């Protein structure tokens, strides 16, 4: 397009026509189609060579030309993330374009406004007086270094793509995942909300103490100690609630006015700071007059005297002063006075001696006070009797709280927060990649310079007792920093008042929008209601919740108590910003390409360590509570929140850790102590790709006390090209069933030309590296005797052979439909183990794992073993009991003796019927229907034959009539074992048996199935177990 929005078309080939049509569609979709676009239909169809080979791809993928035109504007990302697409689709109409902001107006000044705040005006001088210049400088340097390192990390993240609304929450959640993002987002929201409470309390403190003390509802006159403190806090609560309500109403009605007044509030802050510097310069030439009266070395409250003297001369007559009346019982010179008052002189010192006075040396080190202690001047001695009780303490300026270094850190840190203001406005910036790093780092540099210089200048200009006077009680109730300002203290008073009001409004404006952004992401289900608002998108419900939480801070009513709370939340947020940058740098993800290059993972870790250290330095119990809140939110999102894939760093850590663990597993097989069933569950699907035997997964879940790997696999018959959709449907069915049965694992679907090969492929290639299955679970083919299921039992036997060859354990549950679901409970019963052949301990381990699950927990374990003729059954029982003792397994032991009886007629009959059926089925080459008819006829003949034998009690078939004597002996063993098992375990909830190996010759497959059928006949639930050829349980620790 040219400057007049006319489309200029040059010679275009017929092969480029799809590209131009796509461009026309793109232009139309953005509402920018004009009449000149019709020339697209008049394209010259020449040069038939260029892009026709990519015509099919153009139907689904955007062309480079349209892609570049849309990516040129950050506010329009049709091919970006899903969140951006959803946001655009939800827009009701085009918004008026805003003039993009530069670095100064878009980042630098908003950061300056958010960083400078109430702590600078109300607590900085007190911090210098208590902590000393040296200690305060360390605090400021530590806090400013933390925010600078965080700003470096934030700049790297913010310049690694576009940061939409949400600021730090967006950066952390997209870097560390929804769990960390949601937890830290809520913490950042709570920090911003409590910051609003802190600003409101600061506003009320300025109003009631320095501007209009007469407005106090609970009067302080005549009150002392705790009563005065309670009255002050009650005033803060009442007025704080009123101001909070008014501010919330302003934000609800007209947030645009808050934004318009932002520059006015910023101007108040800047003029106040300039007034302080002007006052410092002025002290070098003409220090202001702010006298402080001391009795001995104790600072007197200015409202307790009119003249800083005990007596004065008026017309050559000695007259007592108001100060005398405060400490004596009458105005008479002979009155009885306070002992300390009598023994010490009254002196008046200059509250602000000036920058050239040398007072810096006196204020260099800290002077920490206990609550209720007197504010005393260093270097000035007083005459005090340590044994005499303290009286008239209300006449002195006292410490209102116990102070210590860590308290100062917690109170000061909120004054360096607000560094995220620039990143929150990234959508409004002309060049966010350039403006965010420069503006943020420049703002932090400026504010840090101001703070550090203020620490030194306050210590160099103001007397120590005045610095420690938090509320200016010794200087006529003036704001201490205001006493230093030029031309008048009221510049600071009103400037700080309006700046705190503006900061409170900004907090009440920003916090609901942050909560709304978290709610609309949908990662915390119970917060979704706060994503709604008015028709114009204003977060009404979020504002209501924010005001309610802010009221908690108002009820606390103490600025010094609220400041450490929000310090915790901001420090946690900054800590995770540093962690996000460090992880992204160390993982070296391909998408990590920030334009800001002056970062390093070591700086990020240093910033993270500083944040964590400051959390516990400020208040270890607040830190534990904040981390507990974040942990609870993290676990809630993990278990109940929406699953989001944002390409976060935690997923990258998981991949790296998984790769490392897989490589370690390759070093060798696991030790017996670490062996646990890694189960491959072979499922069968019906014609509609639904699972046929869901109880297999119920049993799998009940076995997962071992916490091993689970792979649920199935085979789809066909070719990959033709049956891929069926495979996807089968995979969805498996995943849905795994979720229902609460089986944690993986699903795997193989497409193969036949089911036999597909099952073999699953057994061979399931798992990855050293994390492979060591156990296969497959259901017993129930209808194997019916001719139409002939191939099914053949596949089953092949699975047995393959697992044996691969040294894999095999679990075959029979009558799987009768197994309990995960919701059932057995209140009593037994799990019987028939231990005939040692299989590495699988038969011992499986009942133990089952009994860890609530379904089988109440069942008792019984172990039966079989003694032959030459075995000592008594000694066997003793040895088995000792073996179980060493294995730490609780079970009842019983040894069953099987005598070498003669082969019964029933055994001969079962063997003969088995062989005859097998022979007939092999010799008859009939159709399916004919084979079924012959089979039914054969069954009737066999039943008649069996009845004839039993009625006449004759043995028509002898040993010579059976061709295979091995089959006869096997059948004899199966019948005898079944008879013993049925007698002992008929009522057992579950019977575990050794599963015999398959015949080496495939000719006897049918006989093998018949043996297993006879062995388990008459038992409700049977789990056939075949070991993998290695020990899975050990007596050693």
From TrEMBL:
Native organism taxonomy: Eukaryota, Metazoa, Chordata, Craniata, Vertebrata
Start and end residues of each stretch annotated as Disordered: 78-97
Gene3D superfamilies: Amino acid/polyamine transporter I
Primary location: membrane
Keywords: Cell membrane, Chloride, Glycoprotein, Ion transport, Membrane, Phosphoprotein, Potassium, Potassium transport, Symport, Transmembrane, Transmembrane helix, Transport
Organism: Oryzias sinensis
PANTHER family per record: SOLUTE CARRIER FAMILY 12 MEMBER 5 (PTHR11827:SF54), SOLUTE CARRIER FAMILY 12, CATION COTRANSPORTERS (PTHR11827)
Domain Amino acid permease/ SLC12A stretches: 107-283, 397-680
Bias kind Basic and acidic residues: ranges: 81-95
All residue ranges annotated as the SLC12A transporter C-terminal domain in the record: 694-805, 826-1037
Listed name of the protein: Solute carrier family 12 member 5b
């Amino acid at each position: 397009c040219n400057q007049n929005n006319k489309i200029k078309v040059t010679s275009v080939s017929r092969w480029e026509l799809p590209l131009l049509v796509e461009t026309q569609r793109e232009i139309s979709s953005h509402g920018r189609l004009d009449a000149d676009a019709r020339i697209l239909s008049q394209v010259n169809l020449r040069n038939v060579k260029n892009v026709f080979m990519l015509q099919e791809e153009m139907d689904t993928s955007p062309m480079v030309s349209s892609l570049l035109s849309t990516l040129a504007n950050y506010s329009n990302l049709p091919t970006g993330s899903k969140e951006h697409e959803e946001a655009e689709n939800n827009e009701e109409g085009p918004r008026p374009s805003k003039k993009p902001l530069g670095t100064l107006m878009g980042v630098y000044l908003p950061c300056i406004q958010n960083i400078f705040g109430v702590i600078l005006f109300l607590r900085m001088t007190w911090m210098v007086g208590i902590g000393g210049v040296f200690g305060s400088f360390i605090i400021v340097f530590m806090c400013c270094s933390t925010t600078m390192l965080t700003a470096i990390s934030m700049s790297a993240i913010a310049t690694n793509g576009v940061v939409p609304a949400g600021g730090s929450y967006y950066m952390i959640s997209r870097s560390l995942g929804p769990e960390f993002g949601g937890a830290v987002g809520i913490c950042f929201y709570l920090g911003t909300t409590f910051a609003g409470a802190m600003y409101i309390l600061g506003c009320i403190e300025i109003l009631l103490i320095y501007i209009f003390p007469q407005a106090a509802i609970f009067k302080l006159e005549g009150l002392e100690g705790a009563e005065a403190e309670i009255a002050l806090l009650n005033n803060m609560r009442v007025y704080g609630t009123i101001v909070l309500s008014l501010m919330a109403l302003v934000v609800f009605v007209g947030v645009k006015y808050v934004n318009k007044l932002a520059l006015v509030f910023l101007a108040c802050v800047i003029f106040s700071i300039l007034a302080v510097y002007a006052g410092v310069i002025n002290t070098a030439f003409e220090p202001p007059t702010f006298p402080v009266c001391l009795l001995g070395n104790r600072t007197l409250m200015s409202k307790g005297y009119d003249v800083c003297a005990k007596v004065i001369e008026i017309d050559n007559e000695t007259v007592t002063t108001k100060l005398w009346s405060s400490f004596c019982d009458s105005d008479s010179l002979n009155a009885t006075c306070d002992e300390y008052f009598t023994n010490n002189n009254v002196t008046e010192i200059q509250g602000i001696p000036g920058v050239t006075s040398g007072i810096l040396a006196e204020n260099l080190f800290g002077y920490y006070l206990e609550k209720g202690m007197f504010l005393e001047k260093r270097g000035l001695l007083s005459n005090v009797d340590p044994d005499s009780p303290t009286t008239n303490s209300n006449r002195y300026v006292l410490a209102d709280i116990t102070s210590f270094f860590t308290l100062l850190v917690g109170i000061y840190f909120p004054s360096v927060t607000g560094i995220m203001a620039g990143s929150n406005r990234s959508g409004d910036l002309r060049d966010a990649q350039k403006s965010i790093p420069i503006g943020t780092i420049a703002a932090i540099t400026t504010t840090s310079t101001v703070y550090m210089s203020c620490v030194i200048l306050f210590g160099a200009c103001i007397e120590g007792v005045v610095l420690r006077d938090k509320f200016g009680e010794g200087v006529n109730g003036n704001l201490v920093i205001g006493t230093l300002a030029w031309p008048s203290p009221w510049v600071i008073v009103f400037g700080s008042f309006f700046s705190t009001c503006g900061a409170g409004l900004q907090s009440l404006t920003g916090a609901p929008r942050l909560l709304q952004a978290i709610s609309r992401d949908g990662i915390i289900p119970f917060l979704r209601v706060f994503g709604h608002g008015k028709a114009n998108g204003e977060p009404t419900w979020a504002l209501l919740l924010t005001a309610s939480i802010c009221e908690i801070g108002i009820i606390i009513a103490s600025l010094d108590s609220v400041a450490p709370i929000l310090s915790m939340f901001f420090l946690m947020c900054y800590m995770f910003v540093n962690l996000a940058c460090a992880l992204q740098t160390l993982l070296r993800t391909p998408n990590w390409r920030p334009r800001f290059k002056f970062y390093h993972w070591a700086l990020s870790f240093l910033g993270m360590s500083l944040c964590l250290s400051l959390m516990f330095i400020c208040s270890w119990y607040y830190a534990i509570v904040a981390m507990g809140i974040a942990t609870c939110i993290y676990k809630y999102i993990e278990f109940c929140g929406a699953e989001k894939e944002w390409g976060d760093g935690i997923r990258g850590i998981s991949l790296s850790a998984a790769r490392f663990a897989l490589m370690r597993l390759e070093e060798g097989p696991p030790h017996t102590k670490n062996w646990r069933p890694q189960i491959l569950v072979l499922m069968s699907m019906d014609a509609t790709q639904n699972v046929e035997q869901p109880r297999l997964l119920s049993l799998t879940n009940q076995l997962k006390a071992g916490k091993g790997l689970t792979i649920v696999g199935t085979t789809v018959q066909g070719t990959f090209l033709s049956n891929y959709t069926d495979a996807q449907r089968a995979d969805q069915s498996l995943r849905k069933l795994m979720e229902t049965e609460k089986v944690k694992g993986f699903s795997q679907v193989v497409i193969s030309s036949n089911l036999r090969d597909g099952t073999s492929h699953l057994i061979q290639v399931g798992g990855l590296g050293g994390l492979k299955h060591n156990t296969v679970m497959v259901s017993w083919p129930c209808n194997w005797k019916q001719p139409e299921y002939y191939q099914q039992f053949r596949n089953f036997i092949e699975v047995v052979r393959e697992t044996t060859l691969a040294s894999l354990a095999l679990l075959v549950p029979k009558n799987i439909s009768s197994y309990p679901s995960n919701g059932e409970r057995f209140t009593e019963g037994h799990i019987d183990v028939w231990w005939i052949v040692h299989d590495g301990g699988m038969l011992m381990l499986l009942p133990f794992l089952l009994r860890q699950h609530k379904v089988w927990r109440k069942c008792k374990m019984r172990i039966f073993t079989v003694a032959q003729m030459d075995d000592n059954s008594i000694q066997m029982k003793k040895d088995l009991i000792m073996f179980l003792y060493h294995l730490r397994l609780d079970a009842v032991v019983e040894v069953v003796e099987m005598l070498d009886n003669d082969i019964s007629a029933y055994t001969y009959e079962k063997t003969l019927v088995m062989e005859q059926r097998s022979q007939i089925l092999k010799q008859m080459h009939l159709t399916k229907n004919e084979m079924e008819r012959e089979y039914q006829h054969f069954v009737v003949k066999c039943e008649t034959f069996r009845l004839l034998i039993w009625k006449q009690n004759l043995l028509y078939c002898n040993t010579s009539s059976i061709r295979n004597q091995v089959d006869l002996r096997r059948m004899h063993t199966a019948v005898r074992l079944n008879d013993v098992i049925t007698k002992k375990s008929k009522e057992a909830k579950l019977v575990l048996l050794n599963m015999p190996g398959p015949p080496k010759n495939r000719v006897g497959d049918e006989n093998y199935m018949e043996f297993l059928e006879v062995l388990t006949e008459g038992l409700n639930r049977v789990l056939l177990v075949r070991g993998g050829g290695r020990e899975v349980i050990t007596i050693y620790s």
